[in-house]
Design a protein that fits this description.
Layout: E1 2-3, E2 5-10, E3 13-18, H1 25-38, E4 43-48, E5 51-56, E6 59-63, E7 71-74, E8 78-81, E9 87-90, E10 92-98, E11 111-113, E12 119-127, H2 133-140
Parallel strand pairs: 3-10, 10-12
Antiparallel strand pairs: 1-5, 2-3, 2-4, 5-6, 6-9, 7-8, 11-12
Length: about 150
């Protein structure tokens, strides 16, 4: 399945940034990649804009299309090279959200349903100027899902 998303690995966890065009998926993902690397964690892009998603042994697996391997789009600036890996297991879906936040608090146990009917736990990541997206993501993760 081809999903409009950005897939990254931060530390030992895979994150599928989802949402409509222009909502900040790539910007949030690249920001998290930079912050994770600065902290000495493994961090790499799997794919930007198009992610090939499949299920293997009850896990969501993301792959990059060959045509966009190693590339990400910075909206308004162009296509840039980024360190990538070809495939990774995804643990969470991340929905970047901007103010005003509606709903103010997300529904409990929210999840992102894939076209196959499988799902990933969904976390909403507020994009607030001056706040570090990676730090916010770290705070949102369940205690048993640290990097």
């Amino acid at each position: 399945m081809n999903v409009h998303a950005t897939a990254v690995v931060l530390g030992t966890k895979g994150f599928l940034f989802i949402g409509p065009s222009g909502t900040g998926k790539t910007s949030a993902a690249l920001s998290c990649l930079s912050a994770a690397k600065a902290e000495g964690l493994f961090a790499a892009l799997v794919a930007d804009d198009q992610v090939l998603v499949s299920m293997m042994q009850r896990q969501v697996v993301a792959r990059r299309p060959a045509s966009i391997a190693g590339l990400a789009e910075i909206r308004g600036a162009g296509i840039v090279p980024v360190d990538t890996i070809p495939v990774a297991v995804m643990d969470f879906a991340i929905l970047p959200v901007k103010s005003p936040f509606e709903p103010r608090l997300p529904p409990e146990n929210e999840r992102f349903e894939l076209p196959s009917g499988d799902f990933l736990p969904l976390l909403r990541l507020p994009l607030v100027e001056g706040m570090n997206s990676f730090d916010n993501l770290r705070r949102l993760l369940p205690l048993n899902a640290r990097f």
